[in-house]
Write a structure and sequence with these properties.
Number of helices: 5
Shape: elongated
Strand content: 15-25%
Number of domains: 1
Strand order of the largest sheet: 1-4
Number of strands: 6
Radius of gyration: 24 Å
Structural class: alpha+beta
Length: 138
């Protein structure tokens, strides 16, 4: 009969729930990116100079990060009926249907999305560092 002993297997316990830890950390870091995205978008959304101004900029809503089985997603939306007209621009049409020019788009969502995407490489590094710290502390 041959006996053998394997030592150090208890060190593998640090990998328990690795997928859950990675998911939690990723969602937390993506939420931080989303908050920055929202802030950038709000700051770049035009506000009228009257008492009714600010509805558009105050209507941005950040959705919780989601995972579709293949990738993580964050989304920012504005359900104000005229948001797309401010974003992309529109024609100026009188009551008779005649066009009198156009208003250029502001592109606050497009531009802020571009800024948010630029921080993803740093975010991926943060996720890796946080996961490493958690694995070493367990």
């Amino acid at each position: 009969m041959i006996d053998f002993k394997i030592e150090g297997l208890d060190e593998l316990d640090m990998f328990n729930d690795l997928d859950k830890k990675l998911d939690r950390i990723t969602r937390e870091e993506l939420h931080k990116v989303g908050e920055g995205w929202k802030e950038d978008c709000v700051n770049n959304t035009p506000v009228r100079d009257d008492d009714n101004g600010g509805t558009l900029s105050q209507s941005w809503e950040l959705k919780k990060p989601s995972f579709d089985g293949n990738s993580y997603n964050i989304s920012l939306e504005n359900k104000t009926e005229y948001a797309k007209h401010v974003e992309f621009g529109h024609r100026i049409i009188d009551r008779n249907g005649k066009t009198h020019g156009s208003v250029k788009g502001v592109y606050m969502l497009r531009d802020s999305r571009r800024n948010a995407r630029a921080v993803f490489p740093k975010t991926i590094k943060k996720i890796g560092k946080r996961l490493e710290r958690e694995l070493n502390n367990d």
